[in-house]
Design goal:
Domain C2: 1-59, 93-204
Shape: globular
Family: Belongs to the MCTP family.
Largest sheet: 4 strands, antiparallel
GO molecular function: calcium ion binding
Oligomer: single chain
Number of helices: 1
Mean pLDDT: 85
Membrane topology: Multi-pass membrane protein
CATH architecture of the largest domain: Sandwich
Number of strands: 11
CATH topology of the largest domain: Immunoglobulin-like
Strand order of the largest sheet: 8-7-10-11
Number of domains: 2
Strand content: 35-45%
Main location: membrane
Length: 204
């Protein structure tokens, strides 16, 4: 019930290549659970923004009245990584020792925001549902922790995919829940849901 909403949400997006990236933003109005209406869209060319500083942008919505006020900071990824299983970041004993030193009791208050990190090895899925007419699926796996999201590659025409990827997330809130969702890639259409698990960090 507001024409001037304030969300005050922070989202972290990670990309690991020197490609041209556009941030697409959509604003929706929801009447009830069944009815939604698009109120406008806008785009931000990430590569055109100055790096290592917070950019305050007022973005007019295309073909619709209104605008969005956003703070966007482009900075190198810290604490986030995707790697193959054979080059697991914590496989090196020297690195494990450095991490143990970094999070020992005497260093607890050196950086209050640096709570720790979570490393997840996504190995495989078994007996997935067939989403295609061929009796197969094109599955990929999405990992979400807080507002951080990373994903595997797609394994095509397979109900027992093997990804063998290692994902590392910085932990910002020890009460967060790791959500792991498997989707079926469906070309230009939205992906089909194949299954999901939720793991509270406090249970690890």
């Amino acid at each position: 019930k507001s024409a001037n909403p304030q969300w005050r949400e922070q989202f972290d997006f990670h990309y690991f290549s020197d490609r041209k990236d556009m941030l697409d933003i959509e604003v929706w109005r929801r009447d009830n659970k069944k009815h939604e209406e698009l109120l406008g869209t806008c785009r931000v060319d990430i590569t055109a923004l100055p790096a290592k500083q917070t950019n305050c942008l007022e973005l007019p919505l295309e073909k619709h009245p209104g605008s969005l006020l956003m703070l966007i900071a482009v900075a190198p990824c810290t604490g986030v990584s995707i790697s193959d299983l054979c080059v697991c970041p914590l496989g090196d004993p020297n690195e494990r020792q450095q991490i143990s030193q970094r999070y020992c009791i005497k260093n607890s208050f050196r950086d209050i925001k640096d709570i720790g990190f979570l490393q997840v090895k996504v190995l495989k899925a078994v007996d997935l549902m067939a989403a295609d007419f061929s009796g197969k699926s094109d599955p990929f796996c999405v990992l979400e922790l807080g507002n951080d999201m990373l994903q595997t590659h797609t394994v095509y025409k397979n109900l027992n995919p093997e990804w063998n990827k290692v994902f590392t997330f910085p932990i910002k809130d020890i009460h967060d829940v790791l959500e792991v969702t498997v989707f079926d890639e469906d070309g230009d259409k939205p992906p089909d849901f194949l299954g999901k698990v939720a793991i509270p960090l406090l249970s690890v």
